[in-house]
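From the methods appendix. Each design record in this collection lists the tokenized structure first, followed by the designed amino acid sequence. Records were kept in a plain field format so they could be parsed without special tools. The example shown here is representative of the layout used throughout.

RECORD:
FOLD TOKENS (118 positions):
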């Protein structure tokens, strides 16, 4: 269950949210996260889609990285209200292109549809 107030509100309103997760193997600045968000918003609006989403990020420190068998960095989740599974390829390519533009190493972890408080 997500604790972000906006995501909780979306779960109540839409019964589900769609989350796209990425791992970035570097500590991102707020400015870099805003650039990734703006790029995704522009592409969504170009496709005449609702550009509303939340960006949730969590730091993966050395201890957590060891436990997960990965590397340190930032886990990014782009969360959309409702079912956005049809946009998976577009979201994946847009965010990875943005990371490439910033010369940051990252990978797409996958998509998840989350139902209300499940």
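DESIGN:
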């Amino acid at each position: 269950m997500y604790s972000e107030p906006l995501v909780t509100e979306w779960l109540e309103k839409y019964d589900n949210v769609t989350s796209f997760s990425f791992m970035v193997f570097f500590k991102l600045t707020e400015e870099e996260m805003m650039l990734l968000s703006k790029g995704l918003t522009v592409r969504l609006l170009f496709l005449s889609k609702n550009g509303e989403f939340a960006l949730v990020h969590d730091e993966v420190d050395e201890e957590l990285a060891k436990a997960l068998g990965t590397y340190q960095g930032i886990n990014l989740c782009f969360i959309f209200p409702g079912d956005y599974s049809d946009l998976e390829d577009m979201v994946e390519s847009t965010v990875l292109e943005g990371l490439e533009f910033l010369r940051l190493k990252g990978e797409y972890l996958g998509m998840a549809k989350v139902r209300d408080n499940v």
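APPENDIX NOTE: The mean pLDDT is 90.
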